[in-house]
Amino acid sequence: MQIYWTKINKIIEETPEVKTYLLDLPEGFTWQEGSHTHFAFEGFNAGDKPNRSLIRHMSISTLPHENSIGITTRIREQCSEFKAILRSLEVGNEVAIFKTHSNVPLKREDKNVYLLSSGVGLATFRPLVLDYLNRADNVNQIHSLNIDSSKDFLFPDVFESAPDKKFTSQFVDNRNEYYDEVKKLAADKDGLFYIVGSDEFLVENMEVLRDQGIKPEQIMLDKREQQLPELLSPIFASEMK
């Protein structure tokens, strides 16, 4: 396993609770849209076993051509030890990244793509949208639906509808309205549905999509392959026999 040590080169306050940490690009480090990485602080590997309280899975919110690795996360006033350390870091501080992988690359199958997320989940989808806007080959259109009651919407420069490019962005502020919209989107029985959020959020979305006739192979989750059966099987039991 290769560990890349790199430095924070910029900290952006996206909203009062959300920050993006931009990291220098280490030589040889590559990734694709929809990637996550293990993000760790100094000392995480000092003992016989890794100190897991100093490590988190984080989505990368940038693309390689932006020449920085973006880590976007919510840090509330009451937060974990990891987030408290992260909040204290400054430009120039060193962090580690390793085990980088994409669970949700943009599928180019001449279908409509629907991005379903909650709050800071948009960080995972930002690179997919940028990749599509830069090259729309074999994607019919993209629709992003995000639930965020704060009204402090993330990445307004990216998540702004662009009808000429067949990209639409929609924000709602409550779950009832959100799931009503998901049901409308699921009228497209051939679409691809990407979901990012907590396990509870994933399960709720999958149940709604299943009830609308969407098949498990049409659903992309930001989860490792070995975690998928655990989430999908109870919901799509009949389809997966």
Automatic annotation (TrEMBL):
FAD-binding FR-type domain boundaries: 1-107
Q: Name one GO molecular function term.
A: oxidoreductase activity
Q: Which InterPro entries match?
A: FAD-bd_FR_type, FNR_nucleotide-bd, Riboflavin_synthase-like_b-brl
Indicate what this protein is called per its UniProt record: Dihydropteridine reductase
Please give the organism.
Gracilibacillus oryzae
